[in-house]
Amino acid sequence: MKTLAVTVLLIGCIVAVGCVSPESTRQRGGRGADVGNRPAVAKMHDGAEPFWKTPRLVATHPPLESARQAERLSRQ
Protein backbone atom coordinates (compact mmCIF):
# COMPACT_ATOMS: atom_id res chain seq x y z
CA MET A 1 0.00 0.00 0.00
CA LYS A 2 2.92 2.29 0.77
CA THR A 3 4.49 1.73 -2.65
CA LEU A 4 1.18 2.54 -4.33
CA ALA A 5 1.03 5.89 -2.50
CA VAL A 6 4.63 6.67 -3.42
CA THR A 7 3.98 5.72 -7.06
CA VAL A 8 0.85 7.90 -7.24
CA LEU A 9 2.73 10.79 -5.62
CA LEU A 10 5.62 10.38 -8.04
CA ILE A 11 3.30 10.31 -11.06
CA GLY A 12 1.47 13.37 -9.72
CA CYS A 13 4.75 15.28 -9.38
CA ILE A 14 5.83 14.32 -12.90
CA VAL A 15 2.49 15.46 -14.33
CA ALA A 16 2.66 18.75 -12.39
CA VAL A 17 6.18 19.47 -13.65
CA GLY A 18 5.14 18.57 -17.19
CA CYS A 19 2.33 21.13 -17.09
CA VAL A 20 4.65 24.08 -16.39
CA SER A 21 5.08 26.25 -19.47
CA PRO A 22 8.62 27.00 -20.67
CA GLU A 23 7.37 30.54 -21.30
CA SER A 24 6.77 31.09 -17.56
CA THR A 25 10.39 32.15 -17.01
CA ARG A 26 10.46 34.66 -19.89
CA GLN A 27 10.08 38.33 -18.99
CA ARG A 28 6.83 39.85 -20.16
CA GLY A 29 6.99 42.57 -22.78
CA GLY A 30 10.34 41.45 -24.17
CA ARG A 31 11.18 39.78 -27.43
CA GLY A 32 10.00 36.29 -28.25
CA ALA A 33 11.22 33.07 -26.73
CA ASP A 34 13.31 32.24 -29.80
CA VAL A 35 15.29 35.48 -30.00
CA GLY A 36 18.08 34.17 -32.20
CA ASN A 37 15.72 32.54 -34.67
CA ARG A 38 14.95 35.64 -36.75
CA PRO A 39 16.31 39.12 -37.46
CA ALA A 40 15.26 42.20 -35.48
CA VAL A 41 12.89 43.27 -38.28
CA ALA A 42 10.81 40.44 -39.68
CA LYS A 43 9.85 40.93 -43.33
CA MET A 44 6.31 39.66 -43.61
CA HIS A 45 5.36 38.44 -47.09
CA ASP A 46 8.43 40.06 -48.61
CA GLY A 47 7.97 40.20 -52.38
CA ALA A 48 4.53 38.56 -52.28
CA GLU A 49 1.73 39.80 -54.48
CA PRO A 50 -1.39 38.77 -52.54
CA PHE A 51 -3.91 40.30 -54.97
CA TRP A 52 -2.25 39.15 -58.18
CA LYS A 53 -4.87 38.29 -60.82
CA THR A 54 -7.71 39.46 -58.57
CA PRO A 55 -10.34 41.25 -60.66
CA ARG A 56 -11.12 44.83 -59.63
CA LEU A 57 -14.76 45.70 -59.30
CA VAL A 58 -14.21 49.46 -59.09
CA ALA A 59 -11.67 51.00 -61.42
CA THR A 60 -11.61 54.45 -59.78
CA HIS A 61 -12.26 55.53 -56.23
CA PRO A 62 -14.67 58.31 -55.26
CA PRO A 63 -13.09 61.64 -54.31
CA LEU A 64 -11.89 61.60 -50.71
CA GLU A 65 -11.45 65.34 -50.16
CA SER A 66 -14.81 65.73 -48.40
CA ALA A 67 -13.94 62.90 -46.01
CA ARG A 68 -10.55 64.48 -45.26
CA GLN A 69 -12.23 67.85 -44.62
CA ALA A 70 -14.71 66.22 -42.24
CA GLU A 71 -11.87 64.51 -40.38
CA ARG A 72 -9.94 67.80 -40.05
CA LEU A 73 -13.02 69.62 -38.74
CA SER A 74 -13.87 66.90 -36.24
CA ARG A 75 -10.37 67.00 -34.73
CA GLN A 76 -10.43 70.75 -34.03
Cα distance spanning the termini: 79 Å
Overall SS class:
mainly alpha
Radius of gyration: 29 Å
Total strand segments: 0
Strand and helix order: HH
Major beta sheet, specifics? Answer: none
Description:
- There is one protein chain.
- The protein is mainly alpha-helical.
- Helices cover 36% and strands 0% of the residues.
- The protein is built from 2 helices and no strands.
- It is elongated and about 85 Å long.
- It starts with a helix and ends with a helix.
Characterize this entry briefly.
The chain is mostly helical. The chain has 2 helices and no strands.
Task: Detail the topology: elements first, then pairings.
Blueprint: H1 2-18, H2 65-74
Give the tags.
elongated
